[in-house]
């Protein structure tokens, strides 16, 4: 059997080697127990978290703040065919969404009551505004 890898013909055992679970976890952090890829940003007014969650319905993502800890979690559901339907037999299955849980310690500068979240095009965006007393406006000094 021959497998195609990057348009080159190689023996099938190479395909099996690169499809090992170790390589899948490295190539796709959403699989398995690893959390989705995340970016954390900061500007003078807020912190921002972006998390890649393609295929995850926004109403199934849980965001909780408890004891200055922001926790983002998702519990994946297994697809079960009804008794009347025959479950599909997959030769290869790469569409996998795994459960995850990720936590971030919030500093004293975060206004926990004003945290907002949106999800669009598979990206969860969480805005963590800073408290007003922490935001320091630049001071203008008049030259005399």
Verbal overview:
The chain is mostly beta strands. It has 2 helices and 9 strands. Strands 3-4-9-8 form a 4-stranded antiparallel β-sheet, with no helix packed on it. Strands 5-6-7 form a 3-stranded antiparallel β-sheet, with no helix packed on it. Strands 1-2 form a two-stranded antiparallel ribbon. Strand 5 and strand 6 (69-74) form a beta hairpin. The longest helix has 7 residues, at 12-18. The model is unreliable at 1-7 and 16-32 (pLDDT under 50).
Quick synopsis:
This protein is mainly beta. The protein contains two helices and nine strands. It is elongated and about 85 Å long.
How would the global form be characterised? elongated
List the strand order in the largest sheet.
3-4-9-8
Strand content: 25-35%
User: Would you count the extended β strands for me?
Assistant: 9
Low-confidence stretches: 1-7, 16-32
Task: Classify the helix fraction into a percent range.
Answer: under 10%
Largest sheet: 4 strands, antiparallel
| Gyration radius, in Å | 22 Å
Average pLDDT metric? 78
């Amino acid at each position: 059997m021959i497998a195609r890898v990057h348009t080159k013909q190689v023996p099938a055992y190479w395909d099996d080697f690169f499809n090992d679970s170790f390589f899948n976890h490295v190539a796709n952090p959403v699989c398995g127990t690893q959390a989705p890829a995340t970016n954390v940003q900061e500007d003078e007014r807020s912190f921002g978290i972006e998390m890649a969650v393609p295929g995850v319905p926004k109403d199934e993502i849980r965001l909780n703040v408890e004891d200055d800890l922001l926790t983002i979690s998702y519990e994946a559901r297994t697809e079960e065919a009804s008794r009347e339907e025959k479950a599909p037999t997959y030769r290869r299955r790469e569409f996998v969404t795994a459960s995850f849980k990720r936590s971030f310690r919030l500093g004293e500068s975060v206004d926990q009551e004003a945290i907002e979240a949106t999800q669009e095009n598979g990206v969860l965006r969480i805005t963590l505004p800073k408290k007003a007393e922490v935001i320091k406006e630049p001071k203008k000094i008049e030259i005399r």
